[in-house]
Amino acid sequence: MPQPTPLLAGREGIESDGAIRMPGRQNCWAIVLAGGEGMRLRSLVRQVLGDDRPKQYARLLGTRSLLGQTLDRIGLAIPETRTLVVTVRQHAGYIAEEFSAASPRPTVLAQPLDRGTAAGVLYPAHWIAWRNPEAIVAIFPSDHFLLGEATFMAHVAEVAGWVEKNPERLVLLGAQPTSPEVEYGWIEPDERLDDLSTGPIRSVRQFWEKPAVARARACMTAGHLWNTSVMIGKVATLVQAGCQALPELSDRLARIEPFAGTPEEPDAVRQAYELMAKANFSRGVLEACPEMLAVSRLPRIVWSDLGSPHRVMEALTRMRIRPEWARSLAPSA
Questions:
Q1: 195-217 burial code (b ≥16 CB/10 A, e <16)
Q2: Mind listing the pLDDT tens digit for each residue in 139-175?
Q3: d(C-alpha 113, C-alpha 252), whole Å
């Protein structure tokens, strides 16, 4: 895997003092997806912590949980006051523990029920659109490992600047593959739309979700990218994509708006979730709206999705740390 490049002052998106410059500073929001159960990593978390908490609330790579590390990374460019953590009600205890001493803290949107990743993305998108319809949103999973975090967030900032000028596109961030990975989704780029300092932004031809080995090898040979599931776009465009692809789910969410900010809002959210069907965001929205998408390749940083014990151990090796719990694991973990 390529080694991280140093952060250079004066690069697009970075001030001379190293601060990351976001376009329209008061207009950029972060959505952090923290509602998953992390079943593939459940056995490792149980061994490390002695309980069955979802992996995003576990301290696997240091003294901060994966969610805490994600928020630290986002905070390089987007403040807590414009950051939404989307979770589910049954995670309330973990959330309370996570933010017991945090000040300021992000806004937490606790979904009353798990209705899949489509609701997990579109509910906060509607929530932001009701308050700031001109906003740009950046969506981040809460279980990623990165080396080169400032470079990563500077790239997010540069893509956000492009989105400001091209509001019709939702831009996915793709990682340069280093192996024919079958547990990741792949993005097949299409025609060049524009250029950033790190390379071209391209349209999206299609997705290959967790392909077989032969297909993964073909994807790698053809120059396709790993799908990081990080996405940047105008909130209005994201809401529009949801309405176009999943009209019934989007209509349920839209019906919450008259109650937003009132004592009736929790009941309106509960009713919306009770009546909506479960849906996957990638399959239900992204694959249904390819004409609204673009993809930008990440700069040369280290990235992985911590979806398996093996990837956690690889991340620890790259960080050159070996916590006590890791020493007790079998070499094959």
A1: ebebeebbbbeebbeebeeeebe
A2: 999 999 999 999 999 999 999 999 999 999 999 999 9
A3: 14
In this structure, is the dihedral angle defined by the CA atoms of residues 265, 270, 273 and 275, taken in order, positive or negative? negative
Radius of gyration for the chain, computed over Cα atoms and rounded to the nearest angstrom: 19
pLDDT band at 101 (very low <50, low <70, confident <90, very high): confident
Which residues have a Cβ under 8 Å from the Cβ of 6 and sit 6 or more positions away?
A: none
Looking at residue 184, its amino acid is Y
Q: Which of 258, 231, 78 is nearest to 154 (CA)?
A: 78
Residue in the block written with tokens 């490792």: 44
Instruction: Output the six-digit token pair for 230.
Output: 């990080």
Cβ proximity of 91 and 36 under 8 Å: no
Peptide bond before residue 299 is cis, with ω within 30 degrees of 0: no
275 near 127, Cβ under 8 Å?
Answer: no
How far is it, in rounded angstroms, from Cα 222 to Cα 189?
A: 10
Helix (H) or strand (E) holding 45: helix 42-49
Residue 101, classed as helix, strand or coil, is coil
Helix (H) or strand (E) holding 295: strand 293-297
Are 121 and 31 spatial neighbours (Cβ–Cβ below 8 Å)? yes
| Percentage above 70 pLDDT, the chain | 89
Q: From CA 107, how far away is CA 99, in angstroms rounded?
A: 11
Q: What angle do CA 174, 178, 180 make, to 5 degrees?
A: 90
How many whole angstroms separate alpha carbon 29 and alpha carbon 80?
A: 9
Q: Which helix (H) or strand (E) holds 228?
A: strand 225-234
**E strand or H helix at 137, and its extent?**
strand 136-141
CB 60 within 8 A of CB 306: yes
Q: Are 61 and 319 in contact (CB under 8 A)?
A: yes
HEC profile of 13-27? CECCCCCECCCCHHH
